[in-house]
TrEMBL record:
UniProt name for this protein: Nucleoside hydrolase
Organism: Streptomyces ziwulingensis
Hydrolase found in the keyword field: yes
Pfam families reported for this sequence: IU_nuc_hydro
Record bears the keyword Hydrolase: yes
InterPro entries: Inosine/uridine_hydrolase_dom, IUNH, Ribo_hydro-like
Domain Inosine/uridine-preferring nucleoside hydrolase positions: 4-305
CDD domains named in the record: nuc_hydro_IU_UC_XIUA
GO MF annotations, alphabetized: hydrolase activity
Lineage: Bacteria, Bacillati, Actinomycetota, Actinomycetes, Kitasatosporales
Record keywords: Glycosidase, Hydrolase
């Protein structure tokens, strides 16, 4: 299995991502680290521990990370993810507490201890990842790739041009992009498209198995449907986990990406230079400011839906 670590702000769709990572035999989920984003960091820790309990994975180390972005103030997305940050389903409290170690320490330890290079999957603002890279830069020698949910080539969601995770902590995202390891950007352009059809969601909801049923509830809450008469639910962050398991389900182009850091309406935008074509002039070689990133432009929706259902209904 591929060793992975998820850094998340659980979060309805972060929960979907955790369920996939726990259930799929192709992944070895070595740790989960939490950061403020969809809700406050203590809420994220609680939600994450509860999801792992429900998924039957009570032993995966979980650590609390940054409680605010590097520069920005705390902002949440409770209007999307509910008051508890995860749909307000009234899920039971977690059966354990988070590790005594902080997220950066746990990330360093698990990355360096892994016998094979680790793939990092950030599905949240990149604050923990930026702190890790600045505190322990040596970790990059045992990172295979970073596959992050964030950014948008076309339209944003937090603002007309900025995606929530990048908008929430733009400086941290800029540090992530310049980590010096291979990076895949699983942005809104593909994120929004992977929707599980209504009948599948209803089947999951009716399951007797708690993890499968939770996946159904989360999908039903998430919407939106492509077809209003048959509401399904988007995989959201779980699509980034699919991208690690099955990269061939994505069409990516290696393109320069820069984050707009200036104050004003474009702050947090991922400026993807689509003028670039592989093999062309020096502009395409990537610089410190404009690293080359494998940007997901297309996704095979059916393939990822099948992958997801196959894992959570095991
Ligand atoms: C991203 O922001 C969060 O609300 C979701 O969990 C996802 O990671 C989408 O912009
Ligand atoms: Ca998230």
């Amino acid at each position: 299995p591929i060793p992975v670590i998820i850094d998340c702000d659980t979060g309805i769709d972060d929960a979907l991502a955790l369920l996939l990572a726990v259930r799929h035999p192709g992944l070895d989920l070595r740790a989960v680290t939490c950061v403020a984003g969809n809700t406050d960091v203590d809420g994220v820790v609680r939600n994450t521990l509860t999801v792992l309990d429900q998924a039957g994975a009570p032993d995966i180390p979980v650590a609390r990370g940054a409680e605010r972005p590097l520069i920005e103030a705390v902002r949440t997305a409770r209007h999307v993810h509910g008051h508890d940050g995860m749909g307000d389903f009234g899920l039971p409290a977690p059966a354990r507490a988070a590790a005594g170690t902080d997220a950066v320490t746990l990330l360093r330890r698990e990355i360096l201890a892994s016998p094979r290079p680790v793939t990092l999957i950030p599905t949240a603002p990149a604050t923990n990842i930026a702190l890790l890279l600045r505190t322990h830069p040596e970790v990059t020698r045992n990172i295979e790739r970073i596959v992050f949910m964030g950014g948008a080539v076309a339209t944003g969601n937090a603002t007309p041009v900025a995606e929530f995770n990048v908008w929430h902590d733009p400086e941290a995202a800029a540090v992530l992009l310049t980590a010096g390891v291979p990076i895949t950007m699983y942005g809104l352009d593909v994120f929004e498209r992977v929707v599980v059809p209504g009948p599948d969601v209803r089947r999951l909801c009716a399951s007797a198995e708690p993890g499968t049923r939770l996946a159904g509830k989360l999908l039903a809450h998430r919407g939106p449907a492509t077809d209003e008469s048959d509401p399904g639910g988007g995989l959201g962050d779980a699509g980034a986990v699919c991208a690690v398991l099955d990269p061939a389900g994505l069409t990516t182009h290696r393109l320069p990406v820069e984050i707009s850091l200036a104050p004003g309406p474009a702050r947090g935008q991922t400026l993807v230079d689509r003028r670039a074509r592989p093999g062309e002039s020096e502009i395409h070689e990537g610089t410190r400011e404009q690293p080359l990133v494998d940007v997901a432009l297309e996704v095979d929706v059916e393939r990822y839906v099948k992958l997801y259902l196959g894992a959570v209904e095991r």
